[in-house]
Each structure stands twice: as C-alpha cells, then as structure tokens.
C-alpha cells in the first residue's frame, strides 16, 4: 500500500482488514516457531484432513506425500477442485468450513493449516479452481517469511489482488470434470525445507505415519481410498489402504494394508463416537493388541497429536469433539462453555460405549481382557480445573469402575471370572516385577486367598490397570504380602493347610520352605514374629520367637519323652521345637537353638532343684 497516497475511508478499512489478517497469521506463526516440536507430527494431519473434506466423483480421495529431496516435500491429492472461498481462506487463514459443519468436515484451511508452515515459510499452492462454473488452473505463493505484520501485509494484499483478476490471470481448463481421472492429482502443496529443523520436522511427520495412519484410515475409510508415501531420500514407496465391513450394526471390521503387511481392527460405532482397537484374529478368536504408548488416543477424525496420555481402553474418535487450538487435547474445564460441556458429554457417552463394546468382545471370547479394564484418570493437555473437570472425571471413573467390576474380564488358567473376584499378586507396593512373579509362582497351585488368580501372563498387565487411583475401585483387587500371611496363619496347622491346598504333608512342607526362603530373601524376617506361620513338631503354626530348633543336633525321641515327663511346664518339647521338615537354616542367626546337651542340662536342673516334680497336676517323686 502506497504510504504517500491520501487514504480514503475505504482504503483505511481495507488496510485494517489486511493488518488484522497479518497480525493473526503472525500470532499463530509465533506459536509454532517458538515450539516446533509440538507441531512436528501435526502438519501431515492438517493436510490430510483438508484433503478428505473435498470428496471427488470417484467416491474417495487418494493422497500422495512425496519427499522429493532433502529440501523439497510435495503433498498431492485428487479431491475436487478449489473454490475461490477455499483460496481466500488459505491466504487470509480463515476456515472455509461452515460454522454448522453439516457436511461433517473436520476443517478446511483454518488455523490448523498454519502449522504446516513449520516445514516452510513459503508454500507453493497449485490446482484447479472453479469460478462461475468455469475451471481454471492456478498457482499462488503463500509467503509467510518475516517476523512483523508489516512483512506479511503486502504479500497478503498482492495475492488477494491477483485473485480479484481470476478471469484474466488463470488459464481455463476445458472439460475438466469429463477428462479428469482418478490419477489426476491436481492439488499440490510444495514445501521448501530450507533448514535442518524444517527437514527434521518433515521426517518426523513421515516416520510417525506408520503409528497413526492405520487408525486414521479406519476412521476415514469411507472418505480416503489410499495414502501413498514416497521417500526419494530413503528410496521407499509405501501405500496405505483400508477395507472395512460391518459385522453387526455397531461393529466394524477393518483391514489396513501397509505395503505387504495387514493389520486388523475392530470398531464399535455410535452416533457420537467410534471406539477402535487393533486385534489379531485366528480361528475366529480375537486377541486385543496393546496400543503403543506413543500413539495418540483421541481423534476428531484425525489424531489429536499430544493426546497419548489421555488414558482410555480404546482409541476414541469423537465425531463432534472440540479440540484445543493446537489439536493436542480437549476443552473440558469450563462449567458453562458449550464446547466444554459438549466434550464432557461425548466422553460420558464414550464410557457407555466402552462397556457395551466390552460385552460384545467378551461374548466373542476375546483374549487380553485386562486391556478392556483400563480406566485410570486421563492426563489432559491442560490441567483439570478442580471444581469442574477434575470432579467430573473422578466421578465418571468411580461409576465406570463399578460397572467394570461386574464384567467377565478375568482370564484364569481354568476359564474366566468377574473382575470383582480377581486377586492380583502384588507382594508390596514397591516390589519389582521379578518379586511379584516369584510371589505369583508361590501362590499358583497353592492359592489360599479370596477370589481367583489371573493367568500368569496377565499379571503385570493387571497391575498396570488397577494400581492407578486404586482407591476408586472401592474393593480389594490386589493380594499382597499381608493378605497372604494373614490367610496362611489362619489355618493354624499343617494338616489344615494340606487339606485346603490338596497336598500331602511332604508336599506342603516343600512349599512352606519355599515361602520361608522367599520371605527371608525379601528381608522380611520380622514378619515371622508378626504371623504364626512356622509349624512346631506337633504341626501347629507358631511365631518364630516362640520356637527353638534342634536342626544342628537332633534330639532323640526318647530324650524328648523323658523331658516331657519331668518338665513342669505344660508345653512339651514338641511344642517349642520347630518341625523337623522345616529348613531351619534360612532363618540364620535369628533362630534359637536347643540341642540335646541343652535338654540334658535342663533335666539336671529339674533333678537338682527338687525331689518332687509336679507334672500335669500330679506329683512325681524322684529318689
């Protein structure tokens, strides 16, 4: 704009409009420039969602992403041609999506598109535009280089002035719709990767596709036919396709082909959400595949990059989610804002869908069911407000878990059981995986506690599921050291224990010795004085401090009988001596020894002290 020109009111209004556009673009650019890592994987999804919003007469859109060289990347698609509204929206960074979104568009060149400038300050855009019913081939340059509004303003004005002359600037393409084919990738965005940081962002986005493209194609299988990723630098050419079919009204089976690899997914779809999980399927048995922790959980058609810790048992696609500005999470904190209210309602509906999807999978004998009970409080991109979001999510979790407890989610060695009946071996809160595994193996085949043990291969998975916010399960699901020792001591004798675990006396002692050794290895010697779990020679469980051992020099039975006949205490030698079958060596120096010599010395004391010994209320005269 000529600064020497005397400006009319219309000129000033036009200048202000350009200035507002430049200020907004610069503000958005500053966000991605200051924190490029936050958008390094997002750019590709912004381009893909814009592509899927322009369906063509072939039914589905196909996309090609080509890393032409280390410093050039092209994004192409065969969707329908641009409108002038699309192009002005690109230049002025205004979404051309209808505010009511009646056509189910995710977004069309809105503020999200600005993040693609992370790859390049200057983007070449070319394609076909329809204006007054006539198709024309165009090419514009989106030049966002510079750090001041004054740098951007003349470039915005120049491009818009060019568009005003659309009928004379751009050549006509006759019979475009008639002549175009499915291989006509006429819409092209070219990015110039001029720095190492821009090149790294391009590579990061492409490499992340292997993680996030499959679920995206599942969610968009009705709109996107295929995505081809060509990397001329590495010499790779990978095509992603997806075929889906409904098994039942709400259940969608999808097969995603990545080159020659096929991945299968099951989805549960309602009017509000789609829940999706990867599966393996052999002999009509579904096995849930654990989601990689690096994968996004939330989708609004396309992944919300940054939602990897929004913990949920399935990938959650909310058709009407209202994401944050950076599309890395959900707006949840306001009590009154319609977007936050809507998001909370959608998540509520998603939990209802989870329980129904669980039921369907259980009815179809799914395995890895512990994954279906994942219900820890999700981490949000924004800290939960204490009075609104935090309270809402905790109450939701409590009600959700109450219903999970009544689902048949526990896989045991014998079959399945309700979650409420599970007992997950967890020796202590700080026990290592190896310790918990050893504890489990001690219990397996000798279990004496409440409920049922999960199959060993699910041990750590269940611990990961139930530990977070354990108190909101509002019931006992773990089986720890104190539970075990309390249950063991309650049997009071070896014979009662043997009957419970259906083992012989010899087998029971073999197991008890393993228990004692394990406790000592865990530095739990003090527990032997807290719980009566060591049998004496009568087979009764005693505290360690109540027992002696003659393991270093066994006392003959005849000597014990003599001792018992003269001992003035009611307890016999068998009462105070540790059972012979107990491996006393594990107790080390804490064990009190009682040898035959000590017993003889004790007898001599009795004889020397009196000629009359009272035994069981009867006088025994010693000459």
Biggest β-sheet strands, sense, barrel: 16 strands, mixed
Number of beta strands: 24
> Overall pLDDT, averaged?
90
**Continuous helix count:** 18
- C-alpha Rg (nearest Å): 37 Å
> How much of the polypeptide forms β-strand, as a percent range?
15-25%
Helix/strand class: alpha+beta
Report how far the terminal alpha carbons are from each other: 132 Å
Low-confidence stretches: 106-110, 619-623
Which word captures the global form?
Answer: elongated
Estimate percent helicity: 25-40%
Q: What can you see in these coordinates?
A:
This protein has 623 residues and is α+β, with helices and mostly antiparallel strands. It is 35% helix and 20% strand. It has 18 helices and 24 strands. The chain has a 16-stranded mixed sheet that branches. It has a two-stranded antiparallel sheet with strand order 17-18. Helix 3 (84-92) links the parallel strand 3 and strand 4. Helix 16 runs parallel beside helix 18 (596-609). The longest helix has 26 residues, at 9-34. The chain is elongated, with a radius of gyration of 37 Å. Mean pLDDT is 90; it is low at 106-110 and 619-623.
Annotate the secondary structure layout.
Blueprint lengths: L8 H26 L8 H10 L8 E9 L2 E6 L4 E2 H9 L29 E10 L2 E10 L5 H16 L1 H4 L1 E2 L3 H4 L7 E6 L3 H12 L1 H11 L4 E8 L4 E11 L4 E8 L2 E9 L3 E10 L2 E4 L9 E3 L1 E2 L11 E4 L19 H26 L25 H16 L5 E2 L4 E2 L6 E2 L7 H11 L15 H8 L11 E2 L1 H10 L3 H8 L3 H17 L12 E2 L5 E2 L14 H10 L6 H4 L19 H14 L2 E4 L2 E4 L2
Parallel strand pairs: 1-8, 3-4, 14-16, 19-20
Antiparallel strand pairs: 1-2, 2-7, 4-5, 4-7, 5-6, 8-9, 9-10, 10-11, 11-12, 12-13, 12-16, 14-15, 17-18, 21-22, 23-24
Helix pairs in contact: 1-4, 3-4, 9-10, 14-15, 16-18
């Amino acid at each position: 704009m000529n600064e020497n020109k005397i400006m009319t009111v219309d000129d000033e209004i036009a200048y202000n409009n350009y200035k507002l556009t430049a200020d907004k673009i610069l503000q958005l650019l500053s966000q991605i420039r200051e924190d490029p890592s936050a958008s390094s994987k997002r750019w590709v999804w912004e381009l893909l969602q814009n592509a899927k919003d322009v369906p063509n007469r072939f039914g589905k859109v196909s996309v090609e992403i080509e890393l032409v060289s280390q410093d050039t990347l092209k994004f192409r698609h065969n969707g329908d041609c641009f409108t002038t509204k699309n192009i002005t929206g690109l230049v002025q960074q205004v979404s051309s999506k209808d505010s009511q979104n009646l056509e189910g568009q995710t977004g069309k060149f809105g503020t999200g598109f600005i993040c693609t400038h992370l790859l390049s300050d200057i983007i070449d855009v070319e394609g076909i535009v329809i204006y007054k019913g006539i198709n024309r081939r165009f090419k514009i340059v989106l030049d966002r280089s510079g750090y001041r509004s004054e740098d951007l303003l003349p470039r915005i004005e120049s491009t818009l002035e060019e568009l005003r002359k659309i009928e004379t600037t751009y050549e006509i393409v006759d019979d475009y719709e008639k002549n175009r084919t499915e291989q006509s990738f006429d819409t092209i965005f070219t990015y110039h990767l001029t720095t190492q940081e821009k090149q790294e962002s391009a590579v990061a986005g492409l490499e992340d596709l292997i993680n996030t493209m499959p679920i995206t194609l599942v969610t968009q299988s009705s709109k996107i036919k295929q995505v081809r990723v060509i990397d001329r630098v590495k010499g790779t050419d990978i095509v992603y396709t997806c075929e889906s079919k409904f098994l039942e009204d709400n259940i969608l089976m999808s097969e995603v082909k990545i080159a020659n690899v096929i991945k299968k997914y099951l989805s549960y779809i309602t009017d509000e959400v789609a829940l999706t999980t990867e599966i393996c399927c052999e002999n009509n048995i579904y096995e849930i595949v654990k989601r990689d922790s690096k994968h996004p959980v939330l989708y609004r058609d396309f992944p919300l990059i940054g939602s990897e810790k929004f913990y949920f048992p399935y990938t959650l696609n909310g058709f009407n989610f209202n994401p944050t500005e950076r599309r890395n999470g959900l707006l949840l904190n306001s009590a009154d804002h319609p977007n936050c209210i809507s998001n909370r309602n959608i998540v509520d509906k998603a939990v209802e869908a989870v329980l129904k999807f669980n039921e369907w999978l259980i009815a179809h004998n799914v395995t890895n069911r512990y994954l279906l009970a994942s219900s820890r409080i999700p981490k949000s991109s924004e800290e939960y407000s204490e009075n609104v979001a935090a309270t809402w999510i905790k109450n939701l979790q409590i009600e959700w878990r109450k219903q999970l407890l009544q689902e048949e989610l526990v896989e045991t060695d014998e079959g399945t059981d309700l979650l409420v009946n599970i007992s997950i071996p967890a020796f202590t809160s700080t026990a290592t995986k190896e310790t918990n595994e050893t504890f489990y193996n001690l219990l397996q085949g000798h279990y004496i506690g409440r409920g049922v043990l999960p199959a060993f291969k699910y041990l750590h998975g269940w611990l990961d599921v139930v530990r977070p916010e354990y108190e909101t399960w509002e019931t006992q699901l773990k089986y720890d050291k104190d539970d075990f020792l309390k249950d063991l001591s309650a049997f009071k004798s070896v014979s009662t224990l043997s009957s419970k675990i259906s083992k012989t006396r010899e087998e029971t002692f073999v197991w008890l010795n393993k228990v004692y050794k394990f406790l000592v290895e865990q530095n739990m010697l003090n527990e032997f004085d807290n719980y009566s779990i060591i049998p004496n020679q009568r087979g009764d469980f005693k505290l360690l401090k109540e027992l002696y051992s003659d393991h270093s020099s066994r006392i003959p039975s005849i000597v014990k009988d003599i001792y018992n006949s003269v001992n003035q205490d009611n307890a016999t030698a068998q009462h105070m001596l540790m059972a012979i079958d107990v491996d006393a060596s594990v107790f080390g120096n804490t064990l009190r020894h009682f040898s035959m010599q000590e017993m003889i010395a004790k007898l001599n004391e009795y004889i020397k002290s009196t000629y009359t010994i009272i035994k069981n209320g009867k006088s025994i005269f010693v000459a």
